[in-house]
Write a structure and sequence with these properties.
Layout: H1 2-12, H2 14-21, E1 39-46, E2 49-57, E3 62-63, E4 70-71, E5 74-82, E6 89-95, E7 111-120, E8 125-133, E9 141-147, E10 155-160, E11 170-174, E12 180-186, E13 191-197, E14 204-211, E15 218-225, E16 228-234, E17 245-249, E18 257-258, E19 275-282, E20 285-292, E21 302-310, E22 317-318
Antiparallel strand pairs: 1-2, 2-5, 3-4, 5-6, 7-8, 8-9, 9-10, 11-12, 12-13, 13-14, 15-16, 16-17, 17-18, 19-20, 20-21, 21-22
This protein binds beta-D-galactopyranose (GAL).
Length: 330
């Protein structure tokens, strides 16, 4: 009886243990004992496994002479897999750099950021969209890559400006009907664009909407709750932290209304020194993923994940700081 009870408590507090072992902003390690190197991440669930895709940021940080933005040599996109969101196995560099082609978006001298992967049930392909940049951040394009397996290697198809608009920070969202959207910071990061994708998820289909016009929002993460669409985003201050916001809309195409900063604990006006990257839905609970950037040494940047707390009566969403948390199971 005692044993059964102990086991039950262990099971019931699964995520509590997750965060006892993955201390917020600590150096999270993979199953080989190496630090997880997957920044500005997106997570995709496929057949009971979670795949974490993120920027491979290694080596020295330098400053681009034109944009003065801190950068590392572009290392492509890394992938880790997990069944419990706690133990992460390194699956490799699934979108590797192309060091022999100076003109490629994947040349180490370029910038690849904010990879997001979705699965297309019709084509049975995993589709990755990234922010494809030049070192001086003037390119502002979206890049697309495909793979038959979640762990790649992904084949890079090229980059473009979605519907002719600039595309920097970006994310993907698949609606319940299978229609997918790319949401990006456009118009010199002043306005978000919501670009509907073709059924194969490889291009834009021509329908798009400008959202949060002139509000300078970045780092978008979209999720759906009780039929409404929510958009967590940051302000626009480079690697430096700023105030987050959650916006809501009845349709993915808007109208979007900003609801204010959900980060209600101390340092919440600076998003706990982090920046949003993704919201992971787990049944009807949501985990918000953040990066804490260390621009002097970008490869030392950290992660923290926080549950989104939803008021049962009003549906108001807040993200209080939690060093450990419980009650959400993968
Ligand atoms: C941030 C953006 C990051 C990266 C950085 C470069 O605003 O969210 O993804 O592009 O600027 O300074």
């Amino acid at each position: 009886m005692m044993k059964k009870l102990a086991l039950f408590i262990l099971w019931a507090s699964g995520i509590l243990f997750v965060h006892a072992q993955l201390p917020q902003k600590g150096m999270w390690k993979d199953t080989d004992g190496n630090f997880i190197n997957a920044h500005a991440a997106g997570i995709m669930k496929y057949k009971n496994t979670y795949y974490w895709y993120g920027e491979n940021k290694g080596g020295f940080t330098s400053q681009d002479p034109t944009s003065h933005i801190e950068r590392v040599i572009m290392g492509g996109v890394n992938c880790y897999s997990s069944k419990d969101l706690l133990t992460w196995k390194f699956e490799g560099v699934v979108l590797p750099p192309e060091p022999n082609d100076r003109n490629s978006d994947l040349h180490p001298s370029k910038v690849i950021e904010r990879p997001k992967v979705i699965y297309n049930k019709k084509t049975k392909q995993f589709v990755m969209w990234v922010h494809a940049e030049s070192a001086d951040y003037s390119k502002a394009c979206a890049g697309v890559a495909v793979s038959k397996t979640p762990t790649g290697p992904f084949k890079y198809l090229g980059s473009f400006r979605p519907n002719g608009g600039m595309s920097r920070d970006q994310t993907l969202f698949v609606d319940d009907d299978g229609t997918a959207y790319q949401i990006c910071s456009s118009e010199e990061n002043q306005t978000l664009h919501i670009n509907r994708l073709t059924p194969d998820y490889l291009k834009c289909d021509g329908t798009y909407k400008r959202a949060l016009i002139g509000m300078s929002r970045e780092a978008p993460a979209v999720f759906k709750y009780k039929g409404k669409y929510y958009l967590l985003s940051s302000g626009c201050t480079g690697w430096a932290p700023n105030k987050a916001d959650i916006a809501v809309a009845d349709s993915i195409m808007g109208e979007w209304t900003m609801l204010g900063n959900p980060c209600v604990s101390e340092n919440g006006d600076k998003t706990y020194m982090g920046q949003s990257t993704f919201v992971l839905p787990l049944k009807d609970r949501f985990i918000a993923l953040f990066d804490e950037w260390h621009p002097r040494n970008l490869s030392d940047s950290r992660y923290f994940w926080l549950p989104i707390e939803i008021d049962k009566k009003t549906d108001r969403m807040t993200i209080p700081w939690r060093e450990v948390w419980e009650g959400i199971k993968p």
